[in-house]
Design goal:
Blueprint (H helix, E strand, L loop, with lengths): L1 E4 L21 H16 L4 E5 L1 E3 L9 H10 L4 E4 L3 E2 L1 E3 H14 L3 E4 L6 E2 H11 L7 E4 L14 E2 L4 H6 L7 H10 L2
Parallel strand pairs: 1-2, 2-7, 3-6, 4-9, 5-10
Antiparallel strand pairs: 5-8
Helix pairs in contact: 4-6
Amino acid sequence: MHFSSDAVFSGTGGPYTEEDTPAPVNFYGKSKAEAEQAVLSVYPAAAVIRISLVLGFPVASGNSFLLRFRDALVRGKEQVLPVSEVRTPVDVHTLTEAVLELCENRFSGLLHIGSTDSINRYELAKKAATKLGFDPGLVKALTEESVSKDRAPRHKNGIISVEKARGLLTTPMLSVEETIKRAVLLE
């Protein structure tokens, strides 16, 4: 099983299906698209799972947006997140359940796993702040005009369709609201 990303797409369209041709806009997306091809060419029976934004807290340590976000809010530090970047998040618990099910069923090919709807990073952070018990006013919008010109290009619409996963899995793909709630409450 190989994990990939919605960053394989340009972000000018969407929702993207497993049949859409990758067209990444940055090095990260290009490396993910090349890795997908390499994995499937070496082992055609592999499962390639594309995810957008994984939400959850680490068991011990690790790279966690929610952990860094919560720690900053505890300190009263304002968090600035982009309005222009739309994602299809998944909570780590749903992702884990789906992956275990795919292993049991010996799934192969491409599959998108995420929420049934999408949200921009700013709105997601405001909702997460509220669910975590913090003032959503600590979350500020990063507009397109205020993005640093030195920042690597980003795909704007990382909106992946999870219809194939919904038809294939018994693990339910959740709404954004349910995804945020599950990520926060099952800490």
